[in-house]
Amino acid sequence: MSLTETNKKELTRAILEFLKSNGYENSYQELLAEAKVSPSDVSTDNILGRKWVLIPKLQMKIQELERMLEQAQKEAGAAGKLRILGKNAASENLPQMPEKMVLEGHRGQITSVLFHPIYSLLVSASEDATIRVWDIETGKPEKFLTGHTGTVNNLAFNTNGTMLASCSADISIKLWSFQTFDCIKTLQGHEHNITGIAFLPSGDHIVSSSRDKTIKLWEVASGYCLKTFVGHNEWVRKVIIHPTLVMASCSHDQTAIIWDLNDALTAIRNKTAGNDAKLILQQLPGHDNVIEAIAFGNDEANRVIEGSEYYRKARFMASISAGEETKDSIDASKAEVKKASKLFVATGARDKLIKLWDAKEATLVATFVGHDNWVRDILFHPNGKYLLSVSDDKSLRVWDLGNGRCIKQILNAHEHFVSCLDFTAKYLACATGSANKQIKVWDCS
Q1: Burial letters for 170-204: b for 16+ Cβ neighbours within 10 Å, e otherwise?
Q2: How many angstroms from the chain centroid is the CA of residue 195?
Q3: Residue 314: closest CA among 387, 366, 359, 354
Q4: Are 416 and 320 in contact (CB under 8 A)?
């Protein structure tokens, strides 16, 4: 594109200003005479310098817009494919851009977000040692819980939402009444930072995981530690409970362990000595770095995974490794899928990978590749069709459990690392927390 006469004059004046201000007097005088410009008409606004600085910023903005356009095109393509199959992308209850609301108030990184199981409330924890309760319909803070003296790492509700448990770097667990919002009990017994907590389905017990390499089982009524589980060699990052009283934990030792809580509770009731080695059902090695997150699949997810092609291939390969006949192994795999109820668990790690496991057989079923940085949190979508993940690459991603592919990604969900994630099926919303002290709520209706 050619310059207009006005553009040419402006450019000449800007060059003259640059030459004069930088001491190129001879060149300045020659151009002044050749261009027939009066010294009084020479620009004094440093136009050339300002435009030179502006160009890289515009280039970065263009690249960002191109990435956003590419993402929108991918999402539009994915939505088109879903419509071809007779589905609408929005009806799949996936997070929609832009975010519904941004919640601000914490003074430190957000470490945990958790929807209330009944009410339209969201609870958040932070490195600022506080817990906040938010109304997700108005976006306004409702309550402010203080008592911890260190980072609050994780939160858990009992089934009916009347009690909240929190664990902290101050080496304590606190139980809060969600009716009076008072701290009703403080549990102590770990020897280092406590980073994971979960209620058992009955609500009578909780389990906690710690940097002291142990998991502890606590009685809620008394606050007593009933048992300490030893199995990991390093910091135990998270612990979760399946409705069938199977427990899973993940660790800095790059493994996940599947535990039998039923036998542990039976031994406690019978007052018999338990053997931790016998309580370990399976160990899942396979990641190349710290495992940050772990999640059990729900019944719907189990059915989707069992019917997938990647699961059948994994079963086939496992049977070959075990030395079985090829045809028999294929037939056995299909028969097993039809008659057995599987237990699947997903793990997310600092190696940027998400791995899906058959927890009963310690078989790696699939590896989901796509994140560009540490995977910080994962969860199975309530409808069982998807797995959601967040990462230090600032993205929120959705994985189709039917084929193992990433079908949706919000690449700049936050301006900084995305550290935690939760989903409410009742109110069809997703929440993410970030190192930038913000919480975002995404509409999934």
Answers
A1: bbbbbbbebeeeebebebebbeebbbbbbbbeeee
A2: 15
A3: 366
A4: no
Q: Write the DSSP assignment of 295-357 as a string of letters.
A: EE--HHHHHHHHTSHHHHHHHHHHHHHTT--HHHHHHHHHHHHHH----EEEEEETTSEEEEE
Buried b (16+ CB within 10 A) or exposed e, 307-340: ebebbbebbbebbeeeeeeeeebeeebeeebeee
Do the Cβ atoms of 348 and 377 come closer than 8 Å?
Answer: yes
User: In Å, how far are 24, 28, 202 from 238, measured between CA atoms?
Assistant: 66, 69, 20
User: Quick one: pLDDT band at residue 7, thresholds 50, 70, 90?
Assistant: confident
* Nearest partner of 180 among 242, 133, 240, 129, judged by Cα: 133
Q: Tokens in use for 392?
A: 């230090």
pTM, 2 dp: 0.77
CB of 166 closer than 8 Å to CB of 126 = no
User: Tens digit of pLDDT for each residue in 111-130?
Assistant: 999 999 999 999 999 999 99
Structural tokens at position 49: 């310098």
Q: How far apart are the first and last CA of the chain?
A: 48
CA distance to 142, 306, 309, 333, 427, per residue, from 312 (Å): 48, 8, 5, 7, 35
Name beta bridge partners: 296. Answer: 345
Strands (E), 350-437: 353-358, 363-369, 375-380, 386-391, 396-400, 405-410, 418-424, 429-434
